[in-house]
Amino acid sequence: MLREQIHDFYYNFVEETKFYRKVDRTKKYYKIINHEIPTSLSNFINDNMYKVYGSVGQGNLSQVPWFGIFHRRITESAKYGVYIVYLYSIEYKKIFLTLNQGFTHFNDMFKRKKFEYARKTSDYFAEEINLQNFKVGPIKLGNGLSQLAKGYESGTIVYKEYNIDNLPSNEELFDDLNHLL
């Protein structure tokens, strides 16, 4: 289920990006990240307090496709607040399960020091959270990233890293997610 969807999205997305740079809602990668994965996660969570959705970009394909889980009392957007998000590193064949924060807030408020303040805030939250088997600190999503993708790296509070070709079982994936929830 989720394991296969994460894997299938990656390979469908990589194949499409060889030929196209625009989002195509008719393609398999789009259906997986916008419908199949959110449905699987919503069925697991089974709580209307959470909003689940994914993104491959708007117009142009994103360097870092993602799908997230947003607690409605905190935020329903990836721009602000703290939320759970899975971030794909296309370059490194990885996906990261992260507790992250919206980078748009830091960009709007701090301009030149946006990455520094995002990281300081992430470090503060990480000190307050004790999650075994999760790493603390920024992640590495690739080289030549956009400002927003670099913001995802800086905004990571805690994370767990998976290799696309060696994903754990569905049970372990859901157990890791449950720890963050």
Provide key terms for this protein.
181 residues; alpha+beta; 6-stranded antiparallel β-sheet; 6 strands; 20% strand
Commentary on this structure:
By secondary structure, this protein is an alpha+beta fold. It contains 6 helices and 6 strands. It has helices at 2-17, 28-45, 103-110, 114-128, 147-154, 170-180, and strands at 50-55, 66-71, 82-89, 94-101, 135-136, 158-163. The chain has a 6-stranded antiparallel sheet with strand order 1-2-3-4-6-5, sandwiched between helices. The chain is globular, with a radius of gyration of 15 Å.
What is the compact description of this entry?
With 181 residues, the protein is of the alpha+beta class. The chain has helices spanning 2-17, 28-45, 103-110, 114-128, 147-154, 170-180; strands at 50-55, 66-71, 82-89, 94-101, 135-136, 158-163. It is built from six helices and six strands.
Low-confidence stretches: none
Proportion of residues in extended strands: 15-25%
The N- and C-terminal alpha carbons lie at a distance of 19 Å
**Helix count, per DSSP?**
6
Overall mean pLDDT score?
A: 95
Biggest pleated sheet = 6 strands, antiparallel
Can you give the helix content as a percent range?
A: 40-55%
The whole-angstrom Rg is: 15 Å
Number of strands: 6
Structural class: alpha+beta
Compressed to H and E, one letter per element, the order equals HHEEEEHHEHEH
Strand order of the largest sheet: 1-2-3-4-6-5
Shape: globular
